[in-house]
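User: structure tokens for this one?
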Amino acid sequence: MAARLVRRCCWRHFGAFVSAPSAVPASLLLPVGKVAMARALPQAPFASFHASSPSSWADRFSVKEQVEDSRNPEHRVIRELIETAASPQELFQLTELHALNSNQASLIITQLSRLAAEKNLETESILRDERFQQLIGMMDSQISQVWNNTLVNLLKSLYSLGMDGNRREMQSVEQEVLWRLRRLTFRQLASLAEFLAVKQGKESKLLYEVIKKLELRWTELEGTRTVVALMGKVGHVSPALMDRLEDKALELAEQFNPDDIRKITLALAYQNRRCVPLLRALSYHLIQKHSELSLNVLLDVIFAYGKLNFHQPQVFQKIATDLHSQVSTMTPVEVTRCIRSFALLKWLSLPLFEAIAQYALDNTKQLSVTHLCGIILSFARLNFQPSGSEDFYNMVHEVLQGQLDSLEPHLLMDLVWSLCVLQQAKAPYLQRVLAPDFYAWLRGDQSLKTQNLRLKLIHINAAAKLESPDYQGPFLPAEMLSAAEPAGEKVTLLQSSLREALAGVLGSRNNGRFDVRTIYGWQIDAEMVVNSENKPLPLKDFAAPHLLRSEGTKPLPPGARRVAFLRWEFPNFSNRGKDLLGRYAMAQRHIQAAGFLVVDVS
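Assistant:
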């Protein structure tokens, strides 16, 4: 109790002591054993005392200032004038009419930044104004007396106004914030981290220090708003902090509203963090507690789930049902985003896709070629054919006529490949991408993306040969028909079981081939030739037009047939049944068209 009384007396005398001029050297005010360290910037007479004092002193002093400010009529009036000012001129007039302290000058600078943002004012003229320079001087002269919350807002305001980071006063504010980090509340640290992550990025030294404090004090984290904001704006900078935020979000999952869930799932998607327990909890509460969801929530959640490859059938069904009723009111961008997300998830909702096909027919003039391409690519991925396919594809061909040359090469390749999947690739499309001058840029490039495009080009060439009897060329030359082999593919259980089963049927290794790479860009898991009595024949003796280099030359004997075994795993199907995805349905068609009897193994 005596210690408490002494401390109160000290503060009372200290308040009077600060208000009077003093010539006492700063070094004499430091605790015994401490060396006076001069700041690189001009300070108030007792700045060193403030910096080296225990944090509890600074907090009490800050509380004391706030109490005094609320009791001081003049301070209260000035604060109200600052908060109600509607223009920079009104704020600048305060510097002429009142003797301001450093805290009030900081409040004015913060209000200037707010007005500039709200009214879209030119910040350069504010920074050049002589009265603004006076405010900077007032603030800098006694920066250690600026309250913590005001100091945080001051730093953000100076960044927003575009003040030169090399200016002495700017560095003074940054250094003061750095010195006070331990005394800031968790909410102030979070607010500062959110701002710095957006404004300065990962390279900011101050942001690094702020995040270190957040990581150490994560147990103070409370409230959904802070969790959501930190996950969205700061999580990507610190994986360790993001781990803590995910744990806290799981704890608070029941309290999140739909928009919070939208922001969290987007944050996870953009950072490629597939936190399954959190996603499951958010999905449960989204379905159980929120019957009506806005369009933004529906589109963003399904996009995030698609990007993370997270499958939750109940959520998909609800979102598809809710979106179906809103398709007619969507913009082309929203429609394209919606259908591409479902295609990515391999989730075919027939009513939704039919509605989107009808939307494309009803809004042809509003759809750009890029939007239409997005719809076609999505239909092809899921091998979806609209019920009114004739009208739909007539519209597609009409829109695309004369537009092929305007498309970027990668998009044009994907478009023609998708039309081949849907069996809608006409001669002009095939001629455009199979022309030597189009694919010249693919030669010599061994990147994974280019290899995938080259494989699609081989598929297009196969469609032209096997499914377009009226197409006369051009076709790919032989040197373009060898696709790069995928590296490091693991043998699946189904694959090994198929090989074991066929080993007994074939009798001899000469009677079969495994993992056959064809000139059509498709791989056959196993191949054999059987005679009219269904007995295996040696493959090496016969010509193999489906191979780049055939070992034999003999034609097949009368009644003999080629048999291809195609293995289909779970990823080859859509998530709504046993329908093959478009890519694999086209592979099946091409192998059959090449003269094989196809045996599907799944």
